[in-house]
Amino acid sequence: MKFIEEIKRRFGAAVYIRDEQVVDTKICQLVEGGVEKLQIISDFDRTISTSVHNNEPTKSSFCVFESCSSLTEDYKQKARELYNKFLPIEDDPNMTVAEKLPYIEDWWRQSERLLKNMRFRYEDIELAVKQADVKLREGSAEVFQKLYKHNVPVIVLSAGIGDVVELTLIHENLLTANVSVVSNFLDIADADDGSTVIKGFKGSKLIHVFNKNEHAYLESHSNDTKLSGRLNVILMGDSLGDANMDGGIAYDTVLRIGFLNSDVETKDDPYLLQYERAFDIVLVQDQTMGAFDYLLEEIINNR
Fold first, then answer.
1. Which of the 8 DSSP states describes residue 106?
2. 173, 212, 236, 257: which has the fewest C-beta neighbours closer than 10 Å?
């Protein structure tokens, strides 16, 4: 149990583990497998990026996109109305995923309809990314550098705007050859006046917070060379839907790390209990990559 003890020693009250024996066994399997068997599947918004900075909530990739100056105020207002309507449903601890699913699917469909035939300047996204200055979790640059150095594949699986996610990673010099982004990318066309028209999102199916598993599965099979033999997974996310991003594939080991970005008053907190059932390790209000970095170092050093 040395790994569990070390994690608890380093991160103290922020760490919740429902079954320490199971988690310790998984970590031992990851360490024994080494970096050659490892791959990373991670959400982006409030997982690689922080949930708060200077006591202010950070912007999601959708929020960054909506700050583009060439988008109409009517679009921005309607997008905010959808957010205010559906986010409480997504976060409701008293609803099951099955109960939430039709609402979340409706949210994404309505979001795409709002975008269709919208004219804007694509370069505004690059400017919006720079101006938003989305903060990544402390230690993100270091762990991405280690993953690149050891050629560990990273699938960033996001239900947000893929263009924003990619440009943010580029802005932070983290979109290296081992990193793939699977997300909702804008389907655009050039208009006669030099502007860009949004046709919707690329692909036949939108990625939302509760169907990421299907897309993780498709991505893993379209990159057989990169992921061949990578049967050990560290999965990271901040929502309950993220816990299933491995897509039910028969990996040898999947260690699930959940970032719970809200206050927990007691061990019986309903949100915490849901996260403990979904994730192996739950980190409460931890804005760092510290726990992941510790595990990665143990795996790298077992050579």
1. H
2. 173
CA angle 245, 99, 237 (to 5 degrees): 25
- CA–CA dist 179, 185 (Å, integer): 16
Nearest to 10 by CA among 276, 216, 303, 286: 286
Strands 38-42, 154-161: pairing is parallel
Residue type, 69: S
Q: Domains of the chain by range and CATH? A: 2-301 (3.40.50.1000)
- Stated pTM of the model: 0.93
Asked if the model's pLDDT at residue 11 lies above 80, the reply is yes
Residue 227 identity (one-letter amino acid): L
**To which H or E segment does residue 163 belong?**
helix 162-171
Active site residue ranges = 43, 45
On the CB side of 288, CA atoms within 13 Å amount to: 10
